[in-house]
Structures are given as C-alpha cells and as structure tokens.
Amino acid sequence: MRVLLGIGGSDDSARALRRTVDRAVAAGDDLTVAVIEGPAGELDREGVERRAREVLDDAGLPADVRHLEGDAGSALVSLAESEDYDEIVVAGGETSPMGKIKINSVAEFVLLNAHVSVKLVR
Amino acid sequence: MSGDRPFPDEQAGPFEAPPISFTDREDREIEIRPYDDAEREALVEMYLAFDPADRAQGIPPGQESRIRSWLENVTGDDCLNVVAWNGDEAAGHATLVPDGEAYELAIFVLQDYQRAGIGTRLIEVLLGYGADNGVEKVWLTVERWNRAAINLYEKVGFETSNAESFELEMALRLV
Q1: In Å, how far is A66's CA from the nearest CA of chain B?
Q2: Which residue among A11, A14, A66, B10 has the highest number of C-beta atoms inside a 10 angstrom radius?
Q3: Domain with residues B20-173, CATH architecture
Q4: How near does any CA of chain B get to the CA of A85, in Å?
C-alpha cells in the first residue's frame, strides 16, 4: 500500500511517525514522509526531517522524505490524489489539559476532503 | 493553549461557593462540596456507571484503569473539583484544570441525575469555588450538536470564543 504520512513538530506527530514506520515495516507499505507546516510544535522543519530520517534508519525502511509548502491539509490531499496514494496518515492524538481529544485543523481538513482512506494515529 | 483565546470583557457571576445543599427536581437532597481525595472510589463508581453515549472527546474514559489515571490528572495539584452527592452516591462532578493563565472546565452528570437542575448548580458552584481560589479565566469545548450543554454554558455567562474548530470553544471571565 502506498502510504503518505504528514508530520510536523508536535509530540503527537512524533508518535504518528514511529507507529507508521513500524506498521510500514510489518505490512511492507511503500511510505512517503511529508514534512508539513503543522500547528504549534517544538521542532522546526529541519528538526522534523532529521527525526524522520533517524526513525526510518533505525527501522531500516527506505522512504522518501519530502517537504510540503503552504496549507498543510490541502497540500497532503493534493499530493495523495496526484500521486495515487492509498492512504493518508496524520497525528490525531492531541489532548487538552483536561484530557479531551482534539482534532487539529490539518487532521480535520484531511478527514473531510480526502478521497482516499485517512488514518489518525492515537 | 490559552495564548490567543479571546475572553469576554465582562465578568460573569457572582457565583455561590461550595458547600451548598438543595432539593433537585426529582425531590432528591443533593449536596455539592469540594472534592476530597478520600472520595476517590465513589467518583470511580460514578464513572464506571457513566453512559458511554454521553462521553465527549474521549472523556470520561470507559475502562477502569483509564478512569483512574484520568481522575489522577484532573484532581492533581492546582486543579479544582466539586462533586454533587445524593447521600453516598456521586451524582455529578465538575472540574477546573489549569492551562497557563486560564483553566479548562468540564462537567459530568450521571444519567439518572440529568434534567433535574443539578448541572446548573454544579457549574455555578464550581465557578464560585474557582473565583474564591483566584481563577480568572475559564474555557471549555463542547460538541456543536450538544445544544443542552451549550445552553447551560451560555446561561452562566460563557461566550463562544472560537467557532472554527471541530468543537465549539467557549470562554468566561471571572475577574
């Protein structure tokens, strides 16, 4: 399966990266990691790319790491459609101080607009 | 998280502080008082009995272990909690959890005790408890379709602060 993972600098993006790489190794997925302009995160783009390459190297998984410019949600959806991906994966596990699960604007856009399957990682 | 959130200019309240007692619309004697850690098991019982259909954004959790760790989180240092009691049975629980300079609010009323006026008193008393403890700003999120909850929040003075996210966000100023 051709999988497009969109990650920014947030903690839940880091979790989505690890989970998706593990899954790709187990399932033999063809993975592309897209570095996106996510909602607030601790890492800048270079940091996110570095982290992605480290996790991919540790897992021994060859995967493209690309940078998407502009609005992250629409960039992910466009790329998935133009290059025939089967699934988009984004982080979906942010919580408020209260522990309420939140859907950020990127996840919301992808969920409502993608014509391929979408996976939110918790 | 509370960085850019707009809060109303006008302050809400005043609200009465706990403890309070009243008779609900089903003629039950209800007492609302600050939560004490010794009452943890009664609160766990309440959440074990909670109808999953009334969960919002994943809380309260369904599994006992998750209920316990969630309660640990919302009753931690600097959190403010009040519980509505019918005798020894916890009927409702409301909580303020610190978020920078503001607090996030959530309220839960056990299904058997809903539509009896308990939620209104519970949220008012929580806000009174908050005001007494230096809380200045409060926010919450609520599902857009949950008109009953939105009406309750508006009644005590919450105003919509962000209508562009998945959930409606509302804010209130106490000071």
Answers
A1: 28
A2: A14
A3: 3-Layer(aba) Sandwich (3.40)
A4: 26
